[in-house]
Write a structure and sequence with these properties.
The complex is a heterodimer of chains A (296) and B (306). Chain A has 2 domains: 251 residues, no CATH class; 28 residues. A two-stranded antiparallel ribbon of chain A has the order 1-2. In chain A, helix 5 packs across helix 6. Chain A contains 11 helices and 2 strands, in the order H-H-E-E-H-H-H-H-H-H-H-H-H. Helix content of chain A is 74%, strand content 1%. Chain A is globular and about 90 Å long. The two termini of chain B are 44 Å apart. The chains are: A mainly alpha (296), B alpha/beta (306). Chains A and B meet through helix 1 and helix 4 of A and helix 3 of B.
Chain lengths: 296, 306
């Protein structure tokens, strides 16, 4: 048996190039999918406009509603593009067998994850800029360089956190059918107890304490601080950022250990079960028909 | 290049305590078309997915291009191409976009246009994948397996669901790949496909290898009993058949069937007798078991299980 002849040295594509390719790929997918683009880009602006319309004249605990709601919608944009879009996009790709196909190529898993996070960051950036522009143009929010700096850092850490948690959460999501309900089902209740849609201190005491374990409250608080609490003197609390970094780290560990690349073996879903039932009923009716024909 | 592309020795795999593979062994020569044949649930896909690195084994030694697929990582994945039995595409990307995307993963990808040409998707180059027909999707599957210019290609039931023309075209494409020196591992349950393409076949049933060899002699079909068959006629009745062969013969639907391990001798006896009587033996032929007969016999036990 001869030994392997030396293969010519092959230049593998650099890791950075692979990640940039993945970011471009994920972003292109989002832009071309109407649902994805709607949830990530349009929805925060839509809700901002609706909330402004309903509450625009009021002042919430002494600050302008516009200022508060803009911060809230930036937080919402981070969570939509980070958490919701990452979960739905990844589960669809998994159930369609796209992830399994990718796993059979030399693309390192971490480059795929980085692509997801990077695309979420890019989408969030666009979404945040749009929310800010709408706030500036129509609701005359106050913005200064300090606020922009603090907001940028918070958004960056936030999107890293929420897209990582989204990747980890796909481990729990059984199928494409339940991806969106599970994503919003886990996010929205947390939003309501985490002072996203109300100024800090609005929620019940014990709920608020419970919520402070999760990253939603820290994202919302950090952004609210930037826009409202120290109006004109945006500041940043290290705790909020640290909690988000902590969640991101934990989520990435879970992702690297448990992420699933293959479609879940699925039993019949609700539609499948309903179809089988209808099929059975049709079969029985046909038998009865045949039996009565026979008697005649 | 190693003379052996794949070697598998004592491979075992079980799912939740149920044995899917019970210690199978085989080797695949470099540059060959190798087929894994077997009924559904026999363990074909499990075997191939272990070789591809998609699944871990419970026991046994496996070497693919000199690497263990469980630990081969990027080095191995860069040298193999995989056509999965069912895997989707991003619906909103075009054929050439997907090929460019996947090509970027490899050290030396083939040019996108060349691959599109090989699989015959020229007209669909700019079409989004959601508009492709079933056969076109399968061709894109193959294109994605080829884009990295792999040494070894896995094709898991590559023509299932094809119409006869599409199958013929795929066979030609697979033969072209062999001509380029690629090693091809094929799973199939189409016997004509295996007969046409493969140089070596391993039949697995119920997680075990039940036969292996070239398709022409699989299960000893080249040396097994042959049947010499002809019809009786007005001028030719049963009692006319010469003694030497009559004890081997049986009658079936008006035809005489002679089971023999020495068809040459039987033919000599029969034809000498017929010529001497000046009559023709109607519908005379020698029949050997087809690949299908051998396959059905080999996998009979597995098929009878619930």
């Amino acid at each position: 048996m001869s030994t392997a002849t030396a293969t010519p040295p092959q230049r593998r594509p650099s890791y950075a190039r692979l990640v940039v390719g993945q970011v471009g790929y994920q972003t292109l997918l989002l832009v071309r999918s109407p649902a994805g683009a709607f949830f990530a880009l349009v929805m925060p602006v839509m809700i901002l406009v609706a909330l402004e319309f309903l509450n625009g004249q009021q002042s919430l605990t002494g600050v302008s509603a516009a200022q508060f709601f803009t911060a809230a919608m930036i937080a919402f944009a981070v969570m939509n593009a980070g958490y919701i879009t990452t979960i739905t996009g990844t589960v669809i790709a998994r159930d369609d067998g796209i992830l399994k196909r990718l796993r059979g190529t030399p693309l390192p898993p971490s480059a795929y994850f980085a692509g997801r996070v990077g695309a979420a960051a890019l989408t969030t950036a666009v979404s945040v800029v749009v929310v800010m522009l709408v706030g500036l143009a129509f609701y005359r929010i106050d913005v200064d360089a300090n606020l922009i700096g603090v907001t940028s850092l918070t958004v960056l850490v936030g999107v890293l956190c929420f897209s990582s948690v989204g990747l980890a959460a796909t481990v729990l999501v059984g199928s494409t059918d339940v991806a969106l309900p599970m994503a919003y089902g886990s996010l929205l209740p947390l939003c309501f107890v985490s002072d996203v849609f109300l100024p800090a201190g609005g929620a019940l005491g014990w709920l608020s304490t419970a919520a402070s374990v999760f990253p939603v409250k820290h994202l919302a608080d950090a952004l609210e601080n930037a826009f409202v609490a120290t109006h004109g003197h945006a500041s940043l609390t290290g705790t909020d950022l640290l909690v988000m970094v902590g969640w991101a780290t934990g989520a990435l560990v879970v992702t690297f250990l448990f992420f699933q690349w293959e479609p879940r073996p699925s039993g019949p879903g609700i539609r499948g079960r309903l179809g089988k039932l209808l099929n059975d009923v049709a079969g029985r009716l046909a038998n009865i028909q045949r039996a009565s024909d026979h008697r005649r | 290049m190693l003379p052996v592309a794949i070697s598998v020795d004592g491979l075992r795999k079980s799912y939740a305590g149920v044995d899917a593979l019970r210690g199978i062994s085989f080797t695949v020569a470099s540059g060959a078309i190798f087929a894994l044949l077997g009924p559904n649930g026999a363990g074909k896909t499990t075997t191939v997915e272990i070789l591809e690195g998609h699944r871990r084994r419970n026991a046994g030694n496996v070497s693919v291009l000199g690497l263990d697929p469980e630990h081969g990582g990027r080095d191995l994945r860069g040298r193999i191409g995989i056509v999965l039995q069912s895997a989707g595409f991003d619906r909103e990307l075009t054929v050439s976009e997907i090929l460019r995307l996947y090509g970027d993963f490899y050290a030396q990808p083939r040019p996108v246009d060349e691959v599109i040409d090989i699989v015959g998707l020229d007209e669909k180059r700019s079409a989004r994948t959601k508009t492709l027909s079933g056969g076109q999707r399968r061709r894109l599957d193959l294109a994605l397996a080829l884009i990295g210019d792999p040494d070894l290609i896995f094709l898991d039931e590559p023509t299932t669901g094809f119409d006869p023309n599409a199958r013929r075209r795929s066979w030609e494409a697979i033969e072209r790949l062999k001509a380029l020196g690629k090693t091809i591992v094929l799973t199939s349950h189409y016997l004509d496909e295996v007969q046409r393409l493969a140089g070596w076949v391993v039949v697995i049933a119920d997680g075990e290898v039940v036969a292996e060899g070239p398709p022409s002699s699989l299960g000893g079909r080249d040396v097994s009993d042959a049947e010499v068959v002809f019809r009786l006629s007005d001028r030719l009745c049963w009692s006319d058949i010469p003694e030497a062969v009559r004890h081997l013969a049986s009658e079936k639907d008006g035809a005489v069937v002679i089971h023999t391990t020495t068809p040459t001798q039987v033919l000599y006896d029969l034809t000498a007798w017929a010529v001497s009587r000046g009559c023709e033996l109607p519908a005379l032929r020698v029949v050997r078991p087809s690949l299908e007969d051998v396959y059905l016999e080999l996998t009979k036990d597995a098929a009878e299980q619930p």
